[in-house]
């Protein structure tokens, strides 16, 4: 028997499962509806540091015990923090699902935040931040985000700022967990060889101590746009150009996804063919979408040489202008097929199924049937793509650039070229 089922526990946590009885594994995890957006500015980075500290010991398990117990059965356990969610997840052989769930429940309800472990983990996170600073094609996106959404939670770095992380008090981390890790703000998701009723029964017992809390406050995102530049001695110029996009609930969601695919989503896309293949201006160039609950971004990244910078930005602006006038049904169809195939292929992974169910529950408060997703993708026609492109590119641009920038035109010049 297979299929998606959902239930709600007495603590308010929602449980959603997808039984796939043709596999030998189970992917399961807890997604929390709180991330960087829910942090006060004074403790930016607390959600990410909390995610790290959850694995550093409980009253029943040391940090070593947590790692060894899951790896003793050949399993994997990990976590991540995003701007709107924090996730803790594991993949094990289906017979070891109870162990994985017990560990997840333990670290999410009974972490002790040992001061010595906290001191060590602060140092680890500071190294992670330092590594991102030394990785231009990583840190450039933090600068881009901060420029698009200045002076607001959505623009702050997920890893936090070094000076804040370095002095983050233990009480602040524990307080943030108490405020945001509530049953109503959490989803337990499991996919693979799992039984829904068994998962619910285990979760009801294991998460009995979870309190009902609604999660941290979320400040509405307000796109501003602008310019950020950092002249550094690098071999490449890392350049990001972006525009205001859409939130998950916007009716243009699927049309924007098709647009991103045909414009810069693959080897057949316009940007790849024109900028890389025909002109040889960049090794890496692509467009991408960032969706949030209330807003989003449509962005283009390019890594280019100092000498090619001016030609690249000119060509990029020209491609944006040309897009609305030269759309062809064949490329729209190709982009639809790419998006449809990627959506269906992703279902072959129990990990992806698990994550999708959790995120859909948190964002839409329901599961979106695959048939509905495919139907909406197939409904995107050439007029819908043209309309969403006009809407996106009418917005004020955001530019972030890093590297040898003496050949890069100033913000007003690029903005004017986009309006011509």
State the main characteristics.
single chain, 420 residues, alpha+beta, 6-stranded mixed sheet, 5-stranded mixed sheet, 46% helix
Description:
By secondary structure, this protein is α+β, with helices and mostly antiparallel strands. It is built from 16 helices and eleven strands. α11 packs across α15 (382-393). It starts with a strand and ends with a helix.
Secondary-structure map with pairings?
Blueprint: E1 3-8, E2 14-19, E3 25-32, H1 46-53, H2 63-72, E4 76-81, E5 86-93, H3 97-109, H4 115-133, H5 136-148, H6 162-166, H7 170-180, E6 186-192, H8 196-206, E7 226-231, E8 237-244, H9 253-264, H10 270-278, E9 284-291, E10 296-304, H11 309-326, H12 329-346, H13 350-364, H14 370-378, H15 382-393, E11 398-403, H16 411-419
Parallel strand pairs: 2-6, 7-11
Antiparallel strand pairs: 1-2, 3-5, 3-6, 4-5, 8-10, 8-11, 9-10
Helix pairs in contact: 1-7, 3-8, 9-12, 9-15, 10-11, 11-15, 11-16, 12-14
Counted by DSSP, the helix tally is 16
Distance between the termini: 58 Å
Order of strands, widest sheet: 1-2-6-3-5-4
Strand count, sense and closure of the main sheet?
Answer: 6 strands, mixed
Radius of gyration: 23 Å
Element order: H for helix, E for strand:
EEEHHEEHHHHHEHEEHHEEHHHHHEH
Mean pLDDT: 95
Q: Class by helix and strand content?
A: alpha+beta
Task: Describe, in short, the structure shown.
The protein is of the alpha+beta class and 420 residues long. It has helices spanning 46-53, 63-72, 97-109, 115-133, 136-148, 162-166, 170-180, 196-206, 253-264, 270-278, 309-326, 329-346, 350-364, 370-378, 382-393, 411-419; strands spanning 3-8, 14-19, 25-32, 76-81, 86-93, 186-192, 226-231, 237-244, 284-291, 296-304, 398-403. It has 16 helices and 11 strands.
């Amino acid at each position: 028997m297979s299929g998606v089922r959902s239930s709600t526990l007495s603590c308010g946590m929602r449980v959603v499962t997808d039984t796939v009885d043709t596999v030998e594994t189970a992917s399961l995890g807890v997604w929390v509806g709180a991330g960087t957006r829910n942090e006060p500015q004074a403790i930016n980075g607390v959600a990410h540091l909390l995610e790290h500290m959850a694995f550093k010991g409980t009253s029943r398990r040391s940090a070593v015990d947590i790692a060894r117990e899951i790896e003793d059965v050949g399993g994997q356990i990990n976590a991540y923090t995003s701007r709107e969610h924090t996730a803790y997840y594991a993949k094990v052989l289906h017979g070891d699902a109870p162990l994985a769930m017990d560990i997840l429940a333990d670290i999410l309800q009974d972490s002790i935040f040992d001061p010595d472990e906290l001191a060590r983990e602060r140092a680890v996170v500071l190294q992670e931040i330092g590594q991102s600073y030394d990785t231009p094609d990583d840190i450039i996106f933090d600068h881009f985000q901060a420029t698009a959404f200045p002076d607001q939670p959505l623009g702050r770095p997920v890893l936090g700022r070094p000076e804040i992380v370095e002095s983050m008090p233990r009480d602040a981390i524990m307080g943030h967990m108490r405020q945001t890790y509530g049953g109503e703000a959490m989803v337990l998701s499991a996919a693979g060889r799992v039984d829904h009723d068994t998962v619910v029964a285990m979760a009801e017992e294991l998460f009995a101590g979870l309190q009902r809390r609604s999660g941290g406050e979320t400040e509405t995102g307000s796109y501003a746009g602008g310019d950020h530049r950092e002249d550094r001695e690098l071999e490449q110029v890392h350049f990001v150009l972006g525009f205001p996009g859409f939130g998950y609930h916007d009716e243009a969601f699927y049309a924007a996804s098709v647009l991103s695919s045909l414009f810069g989503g693959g080897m057949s896309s316009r940007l790849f063919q024109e900028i890389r293949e025909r002109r040889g201006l960049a090794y890496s160039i692509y467009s991408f979408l960032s969706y949030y609950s209330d807003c989003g971004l449509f962005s283009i990244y390019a890594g280019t040489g100092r000498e090619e910078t001016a030609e690249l930005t000119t060509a990029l602006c020209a491609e944006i202008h040309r897009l609305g006038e030269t759309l062809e049904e064949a490329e729209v169809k190709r982009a639809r097929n790419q998006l449809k195939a990627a959506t269906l292929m992703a279902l072959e992974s129990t990990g992806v199924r698990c994550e999708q169910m959790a995120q859909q529950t948190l964002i839409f408060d329901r599961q979106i049937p695959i048939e509905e997703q495919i139907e909406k993708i197939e409904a995107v026609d050439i007029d819908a793509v043209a309309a969403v492109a006009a809407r996106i590119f009418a917005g004020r641009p955001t530019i972030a650039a890093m590297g040898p920038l003496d050949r890069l035109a100033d913000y007003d010049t690029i903005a004017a070229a986009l309006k011509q």
